[in-house]
Design goal:
135 residues, alpha/beta, 4-stranded mixed beta sheet, 18% helix
Length: 135
């Protein structure tokens, strides 16, 4: 089995780890601290499976990352609303919680670390006559 690993490089990695743990119901797995107690590497787990890693971005690391949106599918609307409320604090809402043709409930938010999240419930097939112009 092959898994796609997601590494999130942020300033203030301890705060990011706590935010993501709370928003997505994660646990901190294997981790290594820098001398300043930020994360050299941290693995966040959901139900024993890897979710993502969070790493402290150092000042000398000025990467030219392409914009990336991370998606997460929730089982319930309440879980989605909980994560959305935490992620939007000090962040920017790009799409408030709403229904989309392919999702009964979705939202887009950029958190306080600059990470863009697409939050959704299980998706379904859009109507046959749906188009971006019709909305």
């Amino acid at each position: 089995m092959h898994l796609l690993g997601v590494g999130i490089y942020v300033k203030n990695s301890p705060k990011a780890v706590e935010l993501y743990k709370s928003a997505f119901g994660l646990e901190l797995g294997y981790h290594v601290l820098n001398d300043d107690n930020t994360y050299f590497h941290s693995e966040l787990m959901k139900d024993g499976q890897g979710f993502c890693s969070v790493v402290e971005q150092k000042d000398w690391e000025k990467p030219n990352f392409a914009p990336v949106e991370l998606g997460y599918t929730f089982d319930t609307k309440e879980e989605l609303e909980h994560a959305f409320s935490l992620l939007k604090a000090e962040g920017t809402v790009k799409l408030d919680i709403c229904e989309l043709p392919w999702s009964p409930c979705a939202a887009i938010v950029i958190d306080c670390f600059g990470v863009r999240w697409y939050l959704t419930l299980r998706q379904h097939k859009p109507a046959d006559d749906w188009s971006p112009e019709k909305g």
